[in-house]
């Protein structure tokens, strides 16, 4: 199984459902772009994207 991205928060995961979004939001294998957030408190990209947790995120999810 490849990496999937959450259709709501765009977090990249190996699961079929997003563990960050209470395990109820499905993930998709149709995503592109990679954004890695190391320190969301001081990241302008994290602020503009609404990301509050460090991790890997997709830029676009279909």
What gross morphology would you assign? globular
Mean pLDDT: 95
Q: How far from one another are the termini?
A: 18 Å
Q: Could you list the spans in which at least 5 consecutive residues all have pLDDT below 50?
A: none
Largest sheet: 3 strands, antiparallel
- Run of helices and strands: EEEEHE
Strand order of the largest sheet: 2-1-3
The quaternary structure here is: single chain
Number of helices, counting only DSSP H or I runs of 4 residues or more: 1
Rg, Å, rounded: 11 Å
Structural class category: mainly beta
Could you tell me the number of beta strands? Answer: 5
Helix content: under 10%
Strand share of the residues?
Answer: 25-35%
What does this structure look like?
This protein has one helix and five strands. The protein is mostly beta strands and 62 residues long. A hairpin with a 5-residue loop joins strand 1 and strand 2. The radius of gyration is 11 Å and the shape is globular. The protein starts with a strand and ends with a strand. The mean pLDDT is 95. The strands form two sheets. It has a three-stranded antiparallel sheet, with no helix packed on it. Strands 4-5 form a two-stranded antiparallel ribbon.
């Amino acid at each position: 199984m490849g990496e999937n991205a959450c259709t709501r928060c765009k977090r990249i995961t190996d699961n079929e459902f997003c563990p960050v979004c209470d395990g109820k939001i499905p993930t998709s294998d149709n995503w592109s772009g990679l954004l890695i957030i190391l320190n969301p408190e001081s990241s302008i990209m994290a602020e503009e994207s609404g990301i509050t947790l460090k991790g890997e995120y997709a830029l676009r999810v279909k």
